[in-house]
Amino acid sequence: MGRPINKRYFGADSGNDIKVQFHNGTSSVPGYIVKQKGSKRFVVRAFGSSTDYIRTLVDKTSANIAAGEMTITVKFDNTTVDQVTKINGRVVTAGGLRRPWNFSASTTDGAVQIEEAGSNVSVQTGSTNLEGDAA
Questions:
Q1: Among 63, 76, 77, 118, which residue has the least CB neighbours within 10 Å?
Q2: CA 122, CA 61: separation in Å to the nearest integer?
């Protein structure tokens, strides 16, 4: 599976939830990672919901994801955004490049920014909006 993501980035109200976009069977919705099941498989949950879904990480725009799929969007230091194709511990592959990731909006740290779901995921907070949903 590769090196898993640290569990402190999972679970309701961890304060460091990794935000995702996933298909809930009806439409694409914002949510967060609850648990890692494999290198590209995660248990995810929509904001304000208690229903968990197992989804596979894909490289496509959030509006085009299908049932069973999810995306994680990152922002590079040059402010371009791309979809994560693989996440392994503290390193992601996006745009064909391997980069460390963090939640910082810094444009000079050499890491890509992952959107943080907020300190209270039942009421999404935060000013970063990489997925195109309301932040």
A1: 63
A2: 24
Task: Report which secondary-structure segment, H or E, holds 32.
Answer: strand 28-36
Is 93 exposed, middle or buried (CB count within 10 Å of its CB: 0-12, 13-18, 19+)? middle
Predicted local confidence at residue 134, as pLDDT: 43
Structural domain includes residue 104: yes
**Residue range 17-40: mean pLDDT, rounded:** 88
Q: Indicate the DSSP class of residue 51.
A: -
User: Tell me, what amino acid is at 35?
Assistant: K
CA pair distance 54, 46, nearest whole angstrom: 12
Number of domains the chain is built from: 1
Q: Is the residue at 131 inside a domain?
A: no
Full-model pTM: 0.83
Residue 128 forms part of a structural domain:
no
- Does residue 34 form part of some domain? yes
